[in-house]
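Need C-alpha cells for this chain, all 376 residues.
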Amino acid sequence: MQSSLGGIYAWSTLVGPLQTQLEFSRFQSGLVYGIMIGIFAFATIPAGRWYLRIGPRRTGMIGAALFTFGYWIASFSQGKFFLFLLGLGLVTGTGIGFGYVCPLSVGMKWFPHRKGLITGIMVAGFGFGALYLSSGMEILLSRYDVLTVIRIVGTTSGGIAFIAASLLSEPIGRKVPHASALFHLKTLVHSTKFLILWMGMFTGTFSGLLISGHLKPLLREYGLLDSLAAFGVPVFALGNTAGRLIWGRWYDHWGPQRTVQRSIGVLLASVMLLLVGRIPVLSFLAVLGIGFGFGSCFVIYASSVADLFGVQNVPRIYPLLFGGYGISALLGPTIGGILSDVTNSYSWGLGLSIVLLSGTLGIVKTLRVLPSSPTH
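Here are the C-alpha cells for all 376 residues:
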C-alpha cells in the first residue's frame, strides 16, 4: 500500500514532459508537487480521526479511491492547469494522507517493542514506490503522452492500494488506553519537545522536497546528460528507502536525541556536497545521502511521538507533527522553482536549505531536550 502511494516521489520524471507537452513552467510543476505533498500531510489530521472512528481498513480504502480519482481528473484535464492542480494537488493529495496513516499506525500496534524498525519498514515502502515507478514512467513516457501516463499510473497504483487497504486489521485482544485520556493537544503543541521535533521534520523535509521535486532538471543544470540525470531519481529513491529502514534500526539503539541530531547532520553534509561537487560521482553520492537523510524524517519523528506520547496517541498527535512536512511541501518545491526561474539556477535553493538545516542542527544540539537513550 505504501509503495503504491509513494510513487509521488518520482515526480521530477514528469517535470520535463509537463514543460514540453503542456507548457508548464518550473514554478507550476513545483507548485503541483508541493500542493500534493502539502495536502497529503494536512489530510493525515482528519484521516487520524477517521481511523479512530471507522478503523484502518475503510479509511485506507477511501484514501485509495481518492488517490485514483485525482489522477483521473488530472489525466482528463487536457493540460488546463487548474484542473490538473485540483486533481493531483487536492484530490490525490487527500487520498495519500488517508492511506498513509493507516499502515503506519497498524504496524506500531502489531509490533510495539520495535517501533523504530517497524516504522522504518512501513515508510520504506513509501520510498520504494519512486524507485520502481521512476523507471516505469520513463518507459511509458517514451511511448505515450504525459496525460496518458498519468492515467495509467493512477489506475494501477490506486488499484493496488485499494486491495492492500482491504487487508488491514488491528491486533485483537490487546489492552490500549483510550487516546483522549492522555494528552491535551493544546498543551502538547506548546511543549519544547514537540516544537523541536516539528522543526526537525520541517527543515529535513523542506530540503528533501526542494531537491527531489526538481532533481532531474537540477542534475542537468549541473552538467549531467539527460540519461544520467534521469538516473538521479532512482538513486534518491534508493537512499530514501534505505534510510527509512536503517534509521529505524538506529533509532531503537540511539534514542531520539542522537538520531535526530545525526540525521540532520547527514542531510546538511549531503546538500553541501551536491552544491559543490559538480561531477557525476559526487553528485550521485550527494543525492544518495540526501535521500538517506530525507528518509529518516518519516521514521525517527513518528517513533519519537510513539515513545514520548504513547503509541495509542499516534493517530492523534503524529498528524500535527506531520504538518511540518505539509508546510515544507508547500514551500520547498515552490520556492525552489521560483528561485530557479528568477536566477536561472538551483544553487540558491540549495543554499537556503543549508541555512535552514544548519540553524535547526544548532538548536537541537544546544537545547538537548529529547531523551538521549531509547525509552522502551
